[in-house]
């Protein structure tokens, strides 16, 4: 397997050859162009692989940011290595990303409008973005000492621990800061403090969620976590006709309170929201395959009324199913 690392300010990214067909030996040169402007490191995706850009900047020791927007013609797997002790705070504005790591208990799916915090103790983090949708996101790398100072918690009492993560819906303040970051046109001496101010607004919104979340101070027992992952896997396979909450609790040996609140603590959303998103994700893949029309896809994923599927799809992905199917068809062609 050939790979070409792009290293900038302590962050190493590897574009793996087995994720994109036809890459040349020099993956870095073939996939993107890298350049520097002031304190920022920038990359721009070449048009034959898609479109988009990414930027990185280190504000101070223990606090840096990368942000960007891409739309790939073929799936891209990006492997990131974050310094062992640091936390990674990710915010996704549009699109979706799938994360995997040897330390994580399972795949992490991040949807538009969500933010998450994870700590991987130096293990690689694989980030996969699909095609047909624009992915816009922000990542903040925060050292424990910095996070401890901001939160008022001792560094040895911070959560999540290595190999764990927490996930939330982005509050309006975080969404506004993220939008302002992508709209920022400051230049010259004012650019760096302007970007840092917006990054700190994101951190402030995150801290308000993090310090008020009941799960941040107490971890679930291992056997309860295993049951919750079994619940998630069951729902992922039975999304079209999901069991009720009482049925799930009986089947997996959890009381309803622990099932509902533990599921939210572990995965960042309720079982009902998980099922709804699973239906929409499966629906998106079925639409992209071009083998079914919208009504057939709606029925296949559990919607008895196609108009309800259309409305849910539009709210989640920002366009209606038919428009998405036409876009996917043009990209495949």
Summarize the structure.
By secondary structure, the chain is α+β, with helices and mostly antiparallel strands. The protein is built from eleven helices and 14 strands.
Task: Work out the helix count.
Answer: 11
- And the CATH topology of the largest domain? Jelly Rolls
Which structural class matches the secondary elements?
alpha+beta
Q: Could you give the distance between the termini?
A: 28 Å
Query: N-to-C SSE series?
Result: EEHEEEEEEEEEEEHEHHHHHHHHH
Main CATH class of the largest domain: Mainly Beta
CATH architecture of the largest domain: Sandwich
The major pleated sheet works out as: 8 strands, antiparallel
Report strand %.
25-35%
Kindly state the number of beta strands.
Answer: 14
Strand order of the largest sheet: 3-4-5-6-13-8-11-14
Q: Using only CA atoms, what is the Rg?
A: 20 Å
- What number of structural domains do the residues give? 3
The mean pLDDT is 78
Poorly predicted regions: 1-30, 214-218
Share of residues in helices: 25-40%
CATH superfamily membership of the largest domain, which one?
Jelly Rolls
The 3D shape can be described as globular
